[in-house]
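[User] I have long wanted to understand how a fold can be written as tokens. Those tokens are not coordinates but codes from a learned vocabulary of shapes. Could you go through the record with me and say what the backbone is doing? Thank you; the sequence and its tokens follow:
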Amino acid sequence: MKMASEAQITGKVLKANGKRVGIRISAGPWIDGVPADLIKVRPKNGSFPAEIRAAFTVENNSDGREDYFEADCIRLMPGHPLYAAAKAAA
């Protein structure tokens, strides 16, 4: 798990490596097979800037060949330093 030491979530804003970005936070319930305590953090504009990508593991399963596009996503589980802040803001 990579993360900038000064990374923080305040309300609906994620800050890391000096960059701030508006976010949407989603907490379950999820479909079967997805942990119930998973929290997903997504940018409001569809993709995280390079500074955020350098601080976190960012997932994006878009497939341009199939015209399937999705927003970047950071998955947080209990034990992650930002989990409590994300849960409080969800």
In short: The mean pLDDT is 89. The beta strands are 8-10, 13-16, 19-27, 39-43, 74-76. The longest strand covers residues 19-27. The CA atoms of residues 27 and 39 lie 5 Å apart.
